[in-house]
Amino acid sequence: MDFQELEGCKPFILKNSWVSPLNFHPEVRSKMNLPKKVLIHDVTLRDGEQMAGVVFTEDEKVFIAQELDKIGIQMIEIGTPAVSEEDQRAFKRLSKMNLRAKKIALARIIEEDVKLAAECGADGLFYETGINPYFVKHVLGLDSKEFINRIIKGAKLAKELGLFVEFCGWDTFRINNLEWIKTVYTELLKNVEVDQIGISDTFGQAHPFTVNFLVRKMKEWFPSVPLALHVHNDYGLATATALMAVASGAEAVETSFNCLGERTGNASTEEVVMGLEMILGIDTQIDCSQLYTVSKHIEEISKVRVAPNKPIVGERIFHSESGIVIDANEKMSKGSGIEYSMFPYNPESLNRKLKYVGGKKSGRAFIKLYLQKKGLKASDAQVEEILMRVKKQSIVMKNYLDEEELDKIVKIVLG
């Protein structure tokens, strides 16, 4: 569409949405080190299930894995075979299906975990352990040499068994000795050609600048090995952290639908995918139009309700009650030709629709639009009367009004 230029400005359209052009300003882009492509490693079925009270049955894991595969998720972490027979059976069933995604198993630095994952038909491992020296000493009971040798031994076995291997040292961001971090990964990579390495902001504590710092360090130390980030949302920074990691050079992000996961959950798959697409301009190869559908399926199966204002998939994010916003959106839409001018992304790209609703914050613009939709005419005084009644009833109900309630008010006023 050819937009009218105003004060030297034109809408910046990316994938049918009006986005911020400043994200693509040369000075901003010069500070980024974007990879050629980014893999989404979805951990809903493993880390998502670690959320207290969440349980996925074998059938549910198989169903969700198929749904994730359909939309183009590249790596799906099915579970931990060493934890349950249900996970083992889910892997075995999925291994017989022609999924495009890699089927990933979590394995501790224990050879039995590695062998079991291979036996169950996993394509690869999220091969992980805490590398914080306090964890190594007090939880694993190992000295540094024993610890590194155990990592190497399990990774070698995994590669001998033909598995894709990402080694992730979690709790990376609470370690203040960078040389220790460097040593762990250096010793592993000297002995085993793992496919990917990962770092983890396990407790969601790192400022985005801190993430930029450590990702750049890792790429400086190990430039030829793809790097992944695993992050939790304890400070509400997970999406920002994930996008900063990618902007700093990370080639993969571990995410979970609906932000499911330990404590506050992981970086949200739907938020990270849309952020990569619309903020960084990276084609994830994922079908964004189905993010909402998959989210709703997982919401129903997990029994963890999504907040109505949750970014990307919240039930009310395309609802508008404010008279000022509705009036502005209508006028901007007519002037610019963009029907969602007062929204951050085009709802159609997510297979969603705009919805104007009547309530306490409504204005005359909403009433006139509603009457027009119904094929009705009203005087200015009648519009005011309908608006007053809508506001009063909304205050009593503490909600916006549904269509039936609006029709009753219109009928009372217009007769």
Task: Explain what the structure shows.
There is one protein chain. This protein has 415 residues and is of the alpha/beta class. It folds into two domains: 22-302, Aldolase class I (TIM Barrel, Alpha-Beta Barrel), CATH 3.20.20.70; 319-414, no CATH class. The chain is 43% helix and 13% strand. It contains 15 helices and twelve strands. The strands form three sheets. The protein has an eight-stranded parallel barrel, surrounded by eight helices. It has a two-stranded antiparallel ribbon with strand order 1-2. The protein has a two-stranded parallel ribbon with strand order 11-12. Helix 4 (111-119) packs parallel to helix 6 (144-160). The longest helix has 18 residues, at 380-397. The mean pLDDT is 96.
Q: In CATH, what is the class of the largest domain?
A: Alpha Beta
What's the name of the CATH homologous superfamily of the largest domain?
Aldolase class I
**How many strand units?**
12
Determine the fraction of residues in helical runs and give it as a percent range: 40-55%
Low-pLDDT regions: none
Helix count from the secondary structure assignment:
15
Shape: elongated
Could you name the CATH topology of the largest domain? TIM Barrel
- Biggest sheet, strands in spatial order? 3-4-5-6-7-8-9-10
Question: What is the H/E string?
Answer: EEHEHEHEHEHHEHEHEHEHHEHEHHH
Largest sheet: 8 strands, parallel, barrel
Gyration radius (Cα, Å) is 25 Å
Domain module tally: 2
SS-based class: alpha/beta
